[in-house]
Amino acid sequence: MSVWEETLRSRLARLEQEGRLRSLVPVARAVYPVLERDGRSLINFSSNNYLGLANHPELMEAARKGAQRGAGATASRLIVGHDEETERLEQEIAAFKGTEAALVFGSGYTANMGVLSALLQRGDAVFSDKWNHASIVDGIRLSGATLFRYRHLDMDHLEAQLRLAEKKGIRRKLIVTDTVFSMDGDVARLHDLISLKERYDAALMVDEAHGGGVFGPYGEGVAHHMGLAGKVDLHMGTFSKAFGVVGAYVAGNRTWISYLVNTCRPFIYTTALPPAVIEMIRTSLRLVREAGSRRIALHRKAARFRNRLKALGLNVGPSETQIIPLIVGDVHATVKLSQSLMENGVLAVPIRPPTVPEGTARLRFSLMATHTEEHLETAIDAIERAVRTEGVTIHD
Ligand code: PMP
């Protein structure tokens, strides 16, 4: 056996021992509220298709129309991969977000990773919520900037760190946060973040991956919902969740965007998005703006689902959004609960440490505007039964 084969096998064995070995399971119809897995129909609480747009006929039609221009973009943006439709899309994103300019990226992961590693340099300070997404963490790591990781939503801790950075004479400071956190479904304290950034002369970047499409009068995101969009220096968001497509944007003033065009390596050294995707994103921007009634339905269903779980004495953590954790605590009990729900036709995947803090293993329910009341009632009944029969004690 080669040294690599031996090493990889032993690393995999370690993951298995720790109960962390993952494998791929084919799923069909994941764009719908009921999907198919292992030949079974399961109510789907695990997709990010919050508004139910991922199977919208206008998006399929947009893909067909876009593909007429060619299957691929053939080159990176700065070579010949930039066309009028992409230019128009970026103007539409900037208008939607109320900024001077915007850039599209192939994914939210590359947007965060690329933007943070381009903006920040050694000697700069970055302040990052402990539960920010992995793509933010990785971008910071690549940048070489000094990381101040503040306790989740803890504004006093952040302020202490800002003061420390100031004392050290660090001039450029950037605060970065998810707006809706994907594990607890809770929301960043944007008012406080803005007053701190103003007081300490820092900049603020927000990741609207889970807030975009869902919050704001036209689905612009949490910053618009709170009336604070103009105070954010850099907005990032994905087209892969509520927008139902793939890709991401970064929006801000012209200087920041021009700087990224010139320095952001995952923007410069990758092939541009294909015309079919550009067309789908343009259509999804319009569909999201017009999706007021889907947003209302989603928030109403999420509030009801949360309240029903709470009424059963279950712990839904600090969730205020369409992402609703059912915090169990013990890893094995969480996995058992997930299996028991699956046997009863409900798919909510277990999320375990180190993705979440030790002792807070949970099932995560992501709601969709297209879940029916019947889907939700069936799920709540199944949860009640599974908790009772599995004898799960819920961590508080
Ligand atoms: N930011 C956050 C907060 C996310 O949850 C995700 C996706 N899980 C991303 C960025 C990455 O987005 P994408 O899936 O489009 O790469």
From TrEMBL:
Pathway in which this enzyme or protein is active: Cofactor biosynthesis; biotin biosynthesis
Signal peptide positions on this chain: none
Domain Aminotransferase class I/classII large: 42-383
UniProt-listed SUPFAM superfamilies: PLP-dependent transferases
Cofactor(s) listed: pyridoxal 5'-phosphate
Catalytic reactions on record: 6-carboxyhexanoyl-[ACP] + L-alanine + H(+) = (8S)-8-amino-7-oxononanoate + holo-[ACP] + CO2
Residues recorded as bearing N6-(pyridoxal phosphate)lysine in the entry: 241
GO terms of biological process kind: biotin biosynthetic process
GO molecular function, one term: 8-amino-7-oxononanoate synthase activity
PROSITE patterns per record: AA_TRANSFER_CLASS_2 (PS00599)
EC number: 2.3.1.47
EC class name: transferase
Keywords: Biotin biosynthesis, Pyridoxal phosphate, Transferase
Family that this chain belongs to: Belongs to the class-II pyridoxal-phosphate-dependent aminotransferase family. BioF subfamily.
Role: Catalyzes the decarboxylative condensation of pimeloyl-[acyl-carrier protein] and L-alanine to produce 8-amino-7-oxononanoate (AON), [acyl-carrier protein], and carbon dioxide.
Subunit structure: Homodimer.
PANTHER family membership: 8-AMINO-7-OXONONANOATE SYNTHASE, CLASS II AMINOTRANSFERASE/8-AMINO-7-OXONONANOATE SYNTHASE
Protein name as it appears in the record: 8-amino-7-ketopelargonate synthase
Organism: Polycladomyces abyssicola
Upper taxonomic lineage: Bacteria, Bacillati, Bacillota, Bacilli, Bacillales
Name of the gene this protein is made from: bioF
